[in-house]
């Protein structure tokens, strides 16, 4: 066990100050060698996490030819952004318009925010004169009904033989009034589920996949909406009885969706992934492993090899954040208290009260392998109680390949309808 004073000293010796975006260049160079650069965040409502990730993302696209961005968002909503940045969605006036009209499910502020508008408009401009355009996609599993709607609309448009099965599946879900908790309780406790209808549709689409090959990206859209609907059914079926397994279903779905996106762009493609630290930081370096939980960081390292994955965690010492007191309620700006004494955020702050980052290498990895609490803030947050459950025991240099510390941060700015 290394003493706290020694860790602080080693952070001071190894950290690179971050005073402007050009300071990120060593990090961008290291991440640029990977197939997938996984960019985290310690909350879903911190402005600087979004703006710094955007700067890294732009450079990975410009200087290292990364071909797509995949985020912790719903596939149907993100696909509208994908259409907009590729210039095939004239119904949207600008980035703010597409974000406000596409992201409706709570917590909409995660993607419908002012910080995202700059990146989306940049992508729209960047793509304008390129044949191979950068894409933007959602990896999450929550979009059961939205994905079913998208499937039905597309199958109607192409007059597909799979339309009847899609209508049967969506009819099965109708009695639950698009309320996941109602479906979950019915499926888990009363055996009233739509699993067979969803599986029949998924299998039929797979069998008839050549029918949809005329438009490869439309085919990708159909395929992932079908997978999202199937995995969402499994997720909601499971979430009322087993939190850990529903977590695994969700992260395995995100890894599966990423696999299909990567295949669409080709074996040499590189992608940037935006998700919370709890998804992109290897679960095996936290107490999640003892609970039988996996995540995208672990799954991608296992599937593609560690050298092909570069994960960057984020943290802050204090500031403000936008979050809600209860699920589904109106978000508010909350104070993020100073990090708990002895946490990673605290020791990095003690090494110097300024923005900085650590790049973990074979030479320094052992210096940052102590199991220390690492702050994680969700969309539901109670700052007054955060020391009871918001710190994940972590071996930082095994969880990430690099770590960005932004000492004082401020709340994200949601777009107002």
From TrEMBL:
One of its GO terms (molecular function) is methyltransferase activity. GO terms for biological process: methylation; response to antibiotic. CDD domains: Ere-like. Keywords: Methyltransferase, Transferase. The keyword Lipoprotein does not apply. SUPFAM superfamilies: EreA/ChaN-like. Pfam families: Erythro_esteras (PF05139). Coiled coil: none annotated. This is Erythromycin esterase family protein. The lineage of its organism: Bacteria, Bacillati, Bacillota, Bacilli, Bacillales.
